[in-house]
Specification:
Pfam families: DUF6485 (PF20095). By secondary structure, the chain is mostly helical. The protein has four helices and no strands.
């Protein structure tokens, strides 16, 4: 299965501009999993812009009903 980077970029909300993994979801997920994080796409835009991609941040958002 090939990556459709252009289509993925339409939905990618990553605000980290120098990111080389934008639109290449498999690389993004692998990178963040190794860092014990989740990718930007699982966070609401305002939460994503904090660059806190931790599991704990995501859990707080779920508890608050924001995800």
């Amino acid at each position: 299965m090939e990556c459709n980077k252009d289509k993925n970029l339409e939905r990618c909300n990553c605000s980290y501009e120098p990111c080389s993994r934008k639109g290449v979801c498999c690389e993004c997920i692998k990178y963040h999993a190794q860092m014990r994080q989740l990718p930007a796409c699982v966070f609401p835009d305002d939460a994503e812009r904090t660059y806190d991609r931790s599991y704990e941040h995501f859990a707080r958002l779920v508890t608050e009903g924001r995800v």
